[in-house]
Amino acid sequence: MIDHGNKLDALDGIRAEVSKVVLGQAALIDRLLIALLADGHILLEGAPGLAKTQVIAALGNATGGSFRRIQLLPDMLPSDITGTLIYHPDAGRFQVQKGPILDTHFLLADEINRTPPKVQAAFLQAMQEREVTLGTDTFVLNDPFIVLATQNPIEEEGTYPLPEAQLDRFLFKLVVGYPDEADELRMLDLAALDRRNPIQDVRTVTSPQELVAMREQIKETVYVSDQIKHYIVRLVRATRQPDACPGLQDLRHVIRLGASPRGGTLNLRKACRVLAFLQGRDHVLPEDVKALALDILRHRLILDMRAEGDGITTEDVIQQILEKVEIP
Fold this sequence. Notes:
Layout: H1 6-19, H2 26-37, E1 42-45, H3 52-63, E2 67-71, H4 79-82, E3 83-88, E4 93-98, E5 106-110, H5 117-129, E6 131-134, E7 137-140, E8 146-151, H6 164-167, E9 172-175, H7 181-192, H8 208-221, H9 226-240, E10 255-257, H10 261-278, H11 286-297, E11 302-303, H12 305-309, H13 314-324
Parallel strand pairs: 1-8, 1-9, 2-5, 5-8
Antiparallel strand pairs: 3-4, 6-7, 10-11
Helix pairs in contact: 1-2, 1-3, 9-10, 10-11, 11-13
């Protein structure tokens, strides 16, 4: 164990502040913290009304960062996201008009599968490169910068599913369910207070600069042993070559495309380091890998159509891999 001191206190403070206004989503809050400190983004699948806007707005307040929300629509253009150049005849020159992806730390991209592929591509390219070029000027995105992109699993008509290459740019894909009965009752109590903007009650307990420093400390101080590296590689390779792993031969007809080294292996190591840090450790355990594997791998696997027709899900496949791949 190592003493992270004030850093863990700050992270506990973030959890406490966000939980003031977002009930029943503790797992989502923890995954947001991991993505934030792992320099990644989250794809969120869930029904409307599950506090997606509130959770990332509250996270912005708690960390002293800025928050923006974009409602993605079918008639949008890439410039609606990144910005554009506008000609001013009086001045005789073009002027930069920045898009919402610039000058923000926390960005909610609501219903990203509602907007056409060219807009998705511009959006996700900016996420990956952390910069936007408008004319001859290049603008670097804020640091930290995290996108929470949402998809509604119910309404599929008129949507543009994200292609595999775009999905691979998200660290996590989370499936968010409804809160339990106790949390839903607490929501009634909070609603009875009739607060017009509960986000204003969230105190700032850290700063973007401190989060960046924390992220760098994690890279330098949290150790990943050779055994854990081999375990991560074996898990990810089992999604591509299941017949090479004892007990998984049946999956060779189920998985059509497995996780890539970038999307699976590197992201799993990066996220596990953060989880170890959050738990006060300077080393990664196999339990960290197992805890995060599902959320990191579920959107990187493509199953055979016949397997999907039989009701097999990516969650089923990942769980089977976790059970069969030997733990060091």
